[in-house]
Protein: Myeloid-derived growth factor
Amino acid sequence: MAAPSAGRSGGGGGGAGWWGALLLAAVALGPAQAVSEPLTVPFDVRPGGVVHAFSQHAGPGDRFTCTFTYASQGGTNEEWQMSVGTSEDSQHFTCTIWRPQGKSYLYFTQFKAEVQGAEIEYAMAYAQAAFGRESDIPLKSEEFDVSKTTVTHRPGTFKAELSKLVIVAKATHSEL
Structure:
């Protein structure tokens, strides 16, 4: 897995892309750390320029949290999905946020995906999610930033197109 600043390479699309990311994580983790069944929850991305947020928890005792915060303009509500899952040993956490119909027609003025309980090892943002015969189209690296716990738009260079975010993170160890 790549470091947050260098870990920006693409994966597959829609639900299949999420499973592709999980498969990559499972292969990287080895057979002793297989990926558990993810939880996928639909939610509406609402235009209007107001900041909205959607969160999901995963892992034993809801150890991990993924939160998608955004503001968008244009059109009407779009149905999106968030999938969260953990490796069987609960040391890795995945969060994928995407529009199942592929390309979003909303104009995103800002976005941030944040993980709690883990540090990002891999992250990628896409202008278009794979759907039908269409492929994933990643954002250019100058359009977004990846830190230890967030993936955010980069003001001034983000071109307002977003259809998918993929994050793979490693559990942080809490002090006793």
In short: The chain has a mean pLDDT of 85. The radius of gyration is 15 Å. Residues 14-28+39-135+149-169 form one domain. The chain has one domain: 14-28+39-135+149-169.
